[in-house]
Amino acid sequence: MLVPILPDEGPRITGGRPRYQIGDTVSVNCTSGRSKPATRLNWFINGDPAEPDFLREHDTIITGREGLETSTLGLEFKVKPKHFRRGDMKLKCLATIATVYWRSNEESVEGDKPQKAPVLESRETLLASNSRADRVQATSSAKSSTFHHFIIISTTTGTCTILHLLTVLLR
């Protein structure tokens, strides 16, 4: 009768980053603790089994007098919008030995919002001649034109600042 030797620790996920953007390549490994027989490893992305094309098989490493085995399974794929759920992506590795051992490790990574350069937009508006503001202006100075400049500054945090500059040109 074969008595299994179970791992002392759960599976370890290595090689990941805390943030990914669409188009980045995820390349991580899941490594089991030493056991006999070897653990079977499976990857999940947001709770769904990873596509077989994403999996990278590694040779089992046998160590010690007992011949304990260490399993490693890689996961590699290009990040697409479908991999994010509410801005996060969960990568989970499940290690099993038949029905006697079942442990997992899960990492949650953020979707990195692409950094947008600050936007500087300038708009120039000449007041319409039939507007009330123009009539008031025209009565005070018949030889001037009034320009309103709006400068909109958008920052990476999503805040906007609007600067209003008034230019009066004398003719």
Automatic annotation (TrEMBL):
Keywords: Disulfide bond. Pfam families: C2-set_2. Coiled coil: none annotated. Gene3D superfamilies: Immunoglobulins. InterPro entries: CD80_C2-set (IPR013162), Ig-like_fold (IPR013783). Residues 23-95 form the CD80-like immunoglobulin C2-set domain. PANTHER family: BEAT PROTEIN (PTHR21261), BEATEN PATH IIIA, ISOFORM D-RELATED (PTHR21261:SF15). This is CD80-like immunoglobulin C2-set domain-containing protein. It comes from Pseudolycoriella hygida. The lineage of its organism: Eukaryota, Metazoa, Ecdysozoa, Arthropoda, Hexapoda.
